[in-house]
Amino acid sequence: MLKTIQILGSPSCCFSLSHRLKKPYSNFHLISRNPILAAVSKSHFCAFRFRKGRFFRAFQMSHTHSEPSPDGGPSPPSTSSALLSAGFTRKINFCQLCGGPTKHEVPDGEEKPRAICTRCGKIAYENPKMVVGCLIEHENKILLCKRNIQPSHGLWTLPAGYMEIGESASEGAIRETWEEANAQVEIMSPFAQLDIPLIGQTYVIFLAKLKRPHFSPGPESSECKLFALEDIPFDSLAFSSMLVTLNLYMEDKKTGRAKFHYGIINKRPGTSPSEIREYTLDSHMRC
Ligand SMILES: [Zn+2]
């Protein structure tokens, strides 16, 4: 998350992004589980202009159900009021440092309740998770994976998943693509950052292309398939984040110009995670 903010918040982020990507990728073979995924295009990054004050303006929270986590993990509290009042601390009952029981209080000098260890005093801070993925273009088609795991089993998604410690966002997107689609890809440019504050997730999606025209389902996928734009299964997508991403992509295709998008996905009150169309896309910026 910090890396993305640093990249996107910089007034000269084109330079910053290229600069930041070169070094991680030169060492990627040292940290990747798949040493063949080592390349990224250094020449296709578009120039972005963000004004910091505009980019970091206050985020709006809504009172809605959560969106399921992309890897089938447990969902956080179902309403933002619960989330705010609990401060995501209810699930932390034991200290990760010493194993002692926690109490849930607002620490001195802070405003939100946290899980505080009653034995060693460690405060458990929880921060949003980064989900990274690829929107892969190949011969005017895009690659989608049918999920072979819950949640949203049997529905289509871009290859994406949680970013790991020790990798950059682009490295994570390449890794997830390899794991879910057995596809080697080259990153072309960042395409979208979509925040879902209610569930503490930020999606970072990259435009990418296949290095070789080969792909097949990984363990988390039952099928991988290239879709022409007119055949994208919009009625069978797994998550609101994927629907938003693909809608933005289609809009760009109509204008003939790829852009970078930032936005906040707020689900409508009272809707379930499976109702992927019940959202608003707020604070949408494109450049
Ligand atoms: Zn402790």
UniProtKB/TrEMBL annotation:
Keyword Hydrolase: yes
Cross-referenced Gene3D superfamilies: 2.20.70.10, Nucleoside Triphosphate Pyrophosphohydrolase
EC number(s) per entry: 3.6.1.1
Organism superkingdom: Eukaryota
InterPro entries documented for this protein: NUDIX_hydrolase-like_dom_sf (IPR015797), NUDIX_hydrolase_CS (IPR020084), NUDIX_hydrolase_dom (IPR000086), Nudix_N (IPR029401)
Domain Nudix hydrolase: 127-250
Signal peptide (UniProt feature, chain positions): none
PROSITE patterns documented for this protein: NUDIX, NUDIX_BOX
GO molecular function, one term: inorganic diphosphate phosphatase activity
SUPFAM superfamilies registered for this protein in UniProt: Nudix (SSF55811)
Keywords: Hydrolase
PANTHER family: NUDIX HYDROLASE 23, NUDIX HYDROLASE 23, CHLOROPLASTIC
Name assigned to this protein: Nudix hydrolase 23, chloroplastic
The species this protein was found in: Salvia divinorum
